[in-house]
Specification:
The chain is mostly helical. It is built from 13 helices and two strands, in the order αββαααααααααααα.
Length: 318
């Protein structure tokens, strides 16, 4: 369409070249702004490449060799990965880490939901502030100190056995961290205690963002506490629950501190986990290739577990 615009006297044919001359300038400005943005994030990218990507690539390189860390290395191909899945001891450590997910993830998230819901109902009282402080306290304590304290509590003469004896349950007392049947669950209880505060506060923060009008409307409709929880709280906390599950699952699979301090992988290999196994293989047995292969497998396992959780959450919220 050409000709003058009615009421303006401006010819469209004359106005189009001006628009064409402005668009290259606009594109140049956008390109320059993008370049400035990359310059801002360049230091962070360099830091990430040097201290994260490079060690991952070096670890993968080491996993393809048989090497003691000092002498010459020998090409092994994927033989070290075969050992990870065929050696009963190495594969058992992966299974132990998977079992710890129940304690490190399921228990803190479920209990965290219950405790956060209770604190939300008494949010105006001083007891709520005390409860938040006490529950979050394990997150502040160093894991080494927590492992030492729980080792004392769960020893054969510890407070736990003394309380059980006082209650007349002396028949079930034992060295909880030294018994083959209870060592791994005992380590799991320590992990659940440490992560409970983090999950509770994350879920409580999510509950604080829920519109109070939703609860008022539910009460007017005759909904009880359980119906409010199932119909309002749980759907509103989808993102927070996903964060809690992701963080706690990674903590279970990559556990090291608590296990090393409390049991050092014993008794036998009952509490051996991949992180501790990697440490022993690399620094005690000097099997750097196998240790690197197990580290790569552990990294892939963490990614394989964490990515679906994030993807499912993003798909549901979109």
């Amino acid at each position: 369409m050409t000709g003058p615009i009615p009421g303006t006297g401006v010819d469209l044919a004359e106005s189009r070249p001006a628009a064409r001359t402005r668009s290259p300038l606009r594109r140049h400005g956008l390109r320059r702004a993008g370049l400035v943005g990359w310059l801002f994030i360049l230091p962070a990218l360099a830091f990430y490449a040097v201290f994260v990507l490079r060690p991952i690539l070096v670890t993968f390189q080491y996993s393809l060799y048989t090497w003691d860390g000092i002498g010459p290395s020998t090409w092994a191909g994927f033989g070290n990965y075969v050992k990870v899945f065929t050696d009963p001891g190495l594969f058992a450590s992966i299974l132990n880490a998977v079992k710890l997910i129940v304690f490190f993830s399921a228990i803190p998230v479920v209990l965290g939901l219950a405790i956060a819901s209770t604190i939300r109902r008494i949010a105006t009282s001083r007891l709520a502030l005390v409860a938040r402080t006490v529950i979050f306290l394990p997150q502040v304590i160093p894991l080494v100190a927590a492992g030492i304290a729980w080792s004392w509590l769960l020893s054969s003469t510890g407070v736990v056995n003394q309380v059980l004896t006082y209650l007349g349950l002396g028949g079930i007392t034992r060295a909880w961290l030294g018994d083959f049947s209870t060592a791994l669950p005992a380590v799991g209880v320590i992990g659940a205690w440490v992560l409970l505060g983090l999950c509770t506060l994350l879920l409580l923060a999510g509950m604080s963002k829920i519109d109070p009008a939703l609860f008022e409307a539910a009460r007017l409709d005759g909904a009880g506490p359980m119906r409010e929880f199932l119909s309002i709280v749980l759907p509103s906390l989808r993102q927070e629950i996903a964060v809690c599950v992701t963080v706690t699952v990674i903590a279970a699979l990559a556990s090291f501190d608590i296990v090393y301090i409390s049991t050092q992988g014993g008794p036998g290999n009952a509490t051996m986990v991949p992180g501790l196994e990697i440490y022993y293989l690399a620094f005690s047995e000097r099997r750097v290739g196998v240790a690197s292969a197990l580290a790569v497998v552990l990294m892939l396992l963490v990614i394989a577990v964490a990515l679906p959780i994030q993807r499912l959450t993003r798909d549901r919220s979109s």
